[in-house]
Amino acid sequence: MFVYLSKKIAIPNNVKLNCIAWNKEEGYIAVAGTDGLLKVLKLDQAAGNGQSKGGLAAVSNLSMNQTLDGHKESVRVVTWNDAQQKLTSSDTDGVIMVWMLYKGSWYEEMTNDRKKSTVASMSWTSDGSRICIVYEDGAIIVGSVDGNRIFGKELKGTHLTGVQWSPDNRLILFALANGECHLYDNQGNFAMKLHIQCVSISGGSSSRGHRIASICWFSGRVPQSRKRPVLAICYEIGRVQIMRNENDDAPTIFDTGMRNVDAKWNHDGTVLAICGTALDTVTPPSQRDSNQVCFYSPLGRIFRTLKVPGTDITSLSWEGKSLRIAMAVDSFIYFANIRPDYIWCYFEKTVVFLNSGGSASRDSPMNVITFWNTVSNQSFLKEVEPTLCLASSSEHCVLGVECVSSNIKEIALSTLENRSNPADDRVYQLLLCNSIGTTVDSKYTDIRPCFVGINSSYVAIASQEEILIWHYHTPKSASTLHNVKARKEKRFHIDDTPTGVEMAKDLMLSSSDGHSTQRGISDPISALALSEKLLLVARESGAINEYSIANVALRNRHLMNSKVYKMAINCNSTRAAIIDHMGVMTLLDLDDNRETQLNFSRVERKDVWAVSWAKDNPLLLALMEKTRMYIFRGNDPEEPVSCSGYICTFEDLEITSVLLDDIISVGELQNSSHLIQLRVKSLRDTDDLLEHVGLEDAKQFIEDNPHPRLWRLLAESALKKLELETAENAFVRCAHYPGIKLVKRLRTIHSNELQRAEISAFYGEFEEAEKLYLDADRRDLAIELRMTLCDWFRVVQLYRMGGSGVSDQQMEIAWREIGHHFANLRSWESAREYYEKSHFLEGYMEALYHLEQFDDLEKCVDRLPEKSPLLPKLAEMLASVGMCSEAVQAHLRFGDQKAAVATCVNLRQWGEAVELAQRFQLPQVQALIAKHAAQLLQEGRLKEAIEMQRNAGRHLDAARLLSQMAEREQEKRAPLLRIKKLYVLAALLAEEHLKAVATPEIDYASGRNTLLDSIALEDAAAIERLWHCSEAYHFMLLAQRQLRFGIIHSAVITATRLRDYEDVLPPEHIYSLLALASCADRAFGTCSKAFMKLEQLGHLPEVTLQKYEELAAGIFAKYDPEDAAGERVDCYSCGVPVPDSSPSCPECNARFPACISSGKPITQPTNNIWICTTCHHCAAPTEISRHRTCPLCHSLIVSMTVEI
């Protein structure tokens, strides 16, 4: 930061000032002094007549100068209530007055007169609701903003000197005359005594040497991630202690070297200003300039020292945004301007800066960097780690950040090898960004980037003692460089002397003296500057090392008389501008050719805080001196211009500066008004000569002060006057090839009006050029101009102005281009309208697609001719929204059958894919379906594979997959009904396969068995197996249902039938059910056989078998194992009587089919039975008449016709 005195206001009658306070919200300044003086002032910026020059550069006038009458004695304390807009003052008599603003003036609102003691200090809470007043005799009063006393307290025998509220308003800190600080809560209860470490305080000491000059507790918001000190305690002897909180045992301690008087934090708590008198005992007080203000960081690092004239400085106060500071000295108010060291840079018409406050959120350590394009006024935000520095070259900028995120830090530590200090785990990153904030290259390092510089190929950073030169690569450089060796960083200590022969040898020699890599430094680095050829590194002693960049060799050492603050090197690396810590700017010659050197020893400027060399002239230098900008040509300065902007760039005799104060500190939204364009004197003079004198005088002046910009101005002026010779000569002098071509073309045009039109178009005055063309009756040239500019709306207007003579093709081209314009703007409704007018089907289709008007899009298939190249694109659009049949139609219209099939496959329309493949004889679709099914099975997507096979007409494969699903459900012990349904569904799909293979000769309805014999044996077995499994679960469910509803004998018959399905159902389940049903039916013979089967199951556990044996023993101990006599029927084959429950004849082994409704055997299957037309299973007519659907396959019973 840089500070300089800017204004001085004298108080009438030489009244000595005691204190000053600056209202943070509205800018009112309250000053108080002896004889009851209390004034309220306000500085307002005068409205400028011309361009804005920034807040600090604008003339400030006193818009208010009101004296407040009421105090009789010397006023010692004034304090603002910023939240409530009230002023509180107190004098030596103990009179306290509260002032309020009413209709633009300040009036007394309330008064309190204790008359017992003098007020030592007053402090408002941060929200302005309460005030704490302390008296010298130890009295404490806490009151509300409306004047009510909250509580009062007397500290007997205690001399109080100051008071401050904690930031959260929970605690009150009191300063005692003996140097102690006591903390009380907001109800007046003692909390603790502050631990003072900067001075030694004895218990009964009341020495003035330990008197506290000021206590200042920053009440603003401090991010939790930063934890910087906020409580400053300043002693008169010069000792200062800054604590993070009231319990901080490791505070920042330093000595100011002066008798401290007052201290204040700036608006964000990053700078502590301490005013006082220098402790100089040698110089007499009348001769020395002893008043000064020192600016410190919260960690005690001094930023700047400001000398203030006068005898006795008594108080200071910051402006609301900390861009100015006011000081009360004797009977004067001094104002100083603050030039903060913003983290910012400028390149490619883009201002890059760290946002005010820096953090993305209060507790986040991340910073937000803004990339503001000054041409388009667009801003791009980039969130990065805590940012330490920023610099830019012509095309890129580099950010130096500290890695604090644990994951990023871990990655960084893993990439760094041979770190200089392994004990220190702090890691930093360099981010190379383009103008929209995109990172194009990066590098991790353990060198803290305190200083940074960048040119077109290298980034140089420096800590306090080490320097790193990094050769970065960008996509542009990578594409132009071939066979480039792996890039190597160049790192060395400031005390090393690199020779440039070989970096490794230099480092080896420097470290071979027995010193460790981590070396101490007594003369740290203070500044760095980098050009295309040179690197300058300055040290606090004033020494400047000059290195060549290409081979990193120490070329020279220069010595300055003071500590260097900033440096800048000109465009050809021959001179450097040096600013020391006192703001004195001098020039340093870097050129080895002594014959070409100028004498720069007499160029010295004071109070300089910024410099910038011209990019195209090594002799032009712009510098900021207080609020004035000077431009030097060699040794000679031009007339200064008032400005407070930060210099962005100096190019083409024009300086661009930006009002960073308004953007960053004040927080205004950046716009074009924050940019200031200033022109050098030669450019202004050339404009005046061309405007008021003539071309010859202007030409002579430009020859004396040559610059390409001036020659271009002369050429433009000559062209406007149609003096082609002068214009051509000027274009040649500035090497402007397009201008030379223009002059050559103008010589072929014989009409002055057309020449002027060409000139206007060349300089961007298109409206004037068009007017000239039309006046010359050359509408064709006007149309051609607008076509070149892509202003197709104007082209259409010009076409219509001409009436007839415009072809439909020309209008269609114009409509089409307008459609392109709206399409680029994503205004698809307007684009569709113009594309339709122009009959441009490709754009029309795209507009319909984006408008989701798919019905109209479908109609485009018929509008396009066959084999049109737009048909595949249209098919792709239709397929992307699932319109398969329409997409297929488009592909077929184009003649691409393979693409049509591929579309069906992609949209899972397998049936249509197979149909197309068969129609166009594309066998590869079957292989594609099989491959896709295998992939689905591999991914475990069995259901999707089944659906795909079914849709593709591969019913038997789908049935096999359904059988697998049923087996999985069986393993999961799923409900039996679910397993039955899966098997039935699989069997029905298998029947669909049979229908598909049927031929006219072998009909499915009448010749199903013949079809089964004609297909592959494996397929036939699979189909029969599916129905077998379906029957097993069907009869198991039927038997359980019959048993539950008390149809016991039928349950026994059905359970007996289950013995044929031991290959499907668990035998234990079958015989357990049979034993249960037969026992209930008192058919103990059948029950005995079932138990015998259960006891023979070897896979059952021994305990289960034992239980079965015990259960059987218990049953058959009471009942004989015999069945009751049942009904008998004759076998349809051999005529032998058999039991009605027997599934087959014991004599001839003839099988009796089961009724799927009752489970009973149909002993006469040759006549009088019903057969399902879907599953081909039979049932007794008396049983099936109770059903509307088949009990097994659940197909609708259409006819109850009995099959004979």
From TrEMBL:
SUPFAM superfamilies: WD40 repeat-like
Gene3D superfamilies: 1.25.40.470, YVTN repeat-like/Quinoprotein amine dehydrogenase
One Pfam family matching this protein: TPR_IFT121
Start and end residues of each IFT80/172/WDR35 TPR domain: 710-798
Keyword Repeat set for record: yes
Location of this chain's protein in the cell: Cytoplasm, Cytoskeleton, Cilium axoneme; Cytoplasm, Cytoskeleton, Cilium basal body; Cytoplasm, Cytoskeleton, Microtubule organizing center, Centrosome
Keyword annotations of the record: Cell projection, Cilium, Cilium biogenesis/degradation, Cytoplasm, Cytoskeleton, Repeat, WD repeat
GO biological process, one term: protein localization to cilium
Domain IFT121-like TPR repeats: start-end pairs: 1025-1123
Domain IFT121/TULP4 N-terminal residues, every copy: 1-339
Stored SMART domains: WD40
Domain IFT121 second beta-propeller: 344-678
Quaternary data: Component of the IFT complex A (IFT-A) complex. IFT-A complex is divided into a core subcomplex composed of IFT122:IFT140:WDR19 which is associated with TULP3 and a peripheral subcomplex composed of IFT43:WDR35:TTC21B. Interacts directy with IFT122, ITF43 and TTC21B. Interacts with IFT43. Interacts with CFAP61.
Function: As a component of the IFT complex A (IFT-A), a complex required for retrograde ciliary transport and entry into cilia of G protein-coupled receptors (GPCRs), it is involved in ciliogenesis and ciliary protein trafficking. May promote CASP3 activation and TNF-stimulated apoptosis.
The name this protein goes by in its record: WD repeat-containing protein 35
UniProt source species: Drosophila rhopaloa
Gene from which this protein is expressed: LOC108040010
